[in-house]
C-alpha cells in the first residue's frame, strides 16, 4: 500500500548549491513524523521545497498519489498542503480578525472553519482586534497555525513551532498537533525540541547533511540515548 505522502530522491538548494542531497520520507494518512537534526542540516529547506518556496533540482513529492514537486505554491496548497513557517510570519499591521478573514477567503471546504478554530484556540477569539505586533510570541504562533488550518490541508508542515515559546505554550502547540492528527490530518513536524517531538510523533526521521540518515519508531528512539547522542549530540 502506497503511503499518503512520500518524498523520493529530493534534491534542492539555492543558487545552484546543494542543500538537500536526496531525501526520502514517507507518511501515512493521519500520521505524525518528527524531522529532527542539528542546525543547518536542511530541515527548513525540506519544508520550503515541499511547499514550493524552493524549486527542487530533481526528485518526487507526492500527496495521495498526486505529484507536486516543482509546482507553484498555490497549486501545492490546493493539493492539500499547509505550512506553519519558521518565525510565524505574522503581518504586524493586520489584526487577528483580518489575518483570519484573509485566510478564510482562500480556504477549502472542510472541518476547520473559523468557529472551530476559535474553539480550539480560544485566546485568538479574545484578541481579534489586536494587531500582529501586539501579540505575544505564543499568540503569534497560534495565529500562524490558525491561518494554516483554515486552508483545511490534508498535510500540515510545521517548521520549529516551539521556537522561543514558554513551556506552557509549547504544551498547547502539542495539544493542537494531536487534535488535528486525530481528525485525520497528516503532520510533518520539524523540531529541535525533543520533548515536543516525542510527545506527539509516532515516528522520527533524523537529518544530517541534507539527507535522512535514521528513521525509527518514536518510542524506540526516545529509549535509546546512545542514538540521540550519536545523531543529534544530545541526551
Gist of the model:
The chain is α/β, with parallel strands linked by helices and 235 residues long. 37% of the residues lie in helices and 25% in strands. It is built from 10 helices and 10 strands.
How much helical structure, as a percent, in the residues? 25-40%
State the total count of DSSP E strands.
Answer: 10
Radius of gyration: 17 Å
Beta-strand content estimate: 15-25%
Q: Largest sheet at a glance?
A: 6 strands, mixed
Quickly give the structural class.
alpha/beta
Order of SSEs, N→C?
EEEHEEHEHHHHEHEHEEHH
For the residues shown, what is the average pLDDT? 94
The strand line-up of the biggest sheet is: 6-7-8-3-9-10
Describe the structure.
With 235 residues, the chain is of the alpha/beta class. Helices cover 37% and strands 25% of the residues. It has a six-stranded mixed sheet, with helices on both faces. Strands 2-1-4-5 form a four-stranded antiparallel sheet, with helices on one face. Helix 3 runs parallel beside helix 6 and helix 7 packs parallel to helix 8.
Q: Which features would summarize this protein structure in a list?
A:
four-stranded antiparallel beta sheet, 235 residues, 10 helices, alpha/beta, six-stranded mixed beta sheet
In terms of topology, how is this protein built?
Elements: E1 5-12, E2 20-27, E3 32-36, H1 43-51, E4 56-63, E5 66-67, H2 73-78, E6 81-84, H3 96-105, H4 114-120, H5 122-126, H6 137-150, E7 155-159, H7 167-182, E8 186-190, H8 194-200, E9 203-208, E10 211-217, H9 218-222, H10 225-232
Parallel strand pairs: 3-8, 3-9, 6-7, 7-8
Antiparallel strand pairs: 1-2, 1-4, 4-5, 9-10
Helix pairs in contact: 3-6, 7-8
Amino acid at each position: 500500500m502506497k503511503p499518503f505522502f512520500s518524498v523520493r530522491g529530493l534534491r534542492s538548494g539555492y543558487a545552484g548549491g546543494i542543500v538537500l542531497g536526496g531525501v526520502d520520507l514517507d507518511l501515512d494518512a493521519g500520521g505524525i513524523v518528527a524531522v529532527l537534526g542539528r542546525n543547518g542540516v536542511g530541515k527548513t529547506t525540506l519544508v520550503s521545497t515541499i511547499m514550493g518556496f524552493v524549486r527542487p533540482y530533481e526528485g518526487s513529492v507526492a500527496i495521495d498519489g498526486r505529484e507536486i514537486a516543482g509546482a507553484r505554491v498555490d497549486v501545492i496548497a490546493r493539493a492539500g498542503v499547509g505550512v506553519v513557517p519558521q518565525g510565524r510570519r505574522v503581518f504586524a499591521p493586520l489584526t487577528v480578525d483580518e489575518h483570519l478573514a484573509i485566510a478564510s477567503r482562500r480556504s477549502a471546504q472542510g472541518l476547520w472553519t473559523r468557529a472551530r478554530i476559535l474553539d480550539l484556540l480560544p485566546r485568538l477569539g479574545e484578541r481579534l482586534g489586536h494587531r500582529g505586533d501586539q501579540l505575544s510570541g505564543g499568540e503569534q504562533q497560534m495565529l500562524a497555525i490558525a491561518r494554516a488550518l483554515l486552508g483545511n490541508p490534508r498535510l500540515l508542515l510545521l517548521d520549529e513551532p516551539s521556537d522561543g515559546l514558554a513551556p506552557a505554550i509549547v504544551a498547547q502547540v502539542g495539544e493542537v498537533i494531536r487534535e488535528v492528527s486525530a481528525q485525520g490530518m497528516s503532520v510533518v513536524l520539524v523540531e529541535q525540541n525533543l520533548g515536543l517531538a516525542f510527545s506527539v510523533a509516532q515516528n522520527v526521521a533524523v537529518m544530517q547533511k541534507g539527507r535522512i540518515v535514521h528513521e525509527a519508531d518514536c518510542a524506540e528512539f526516545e529509549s535509546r540515548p546512545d542514538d540521540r547522542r550519536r545523531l543529534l549530540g544530545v541526551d
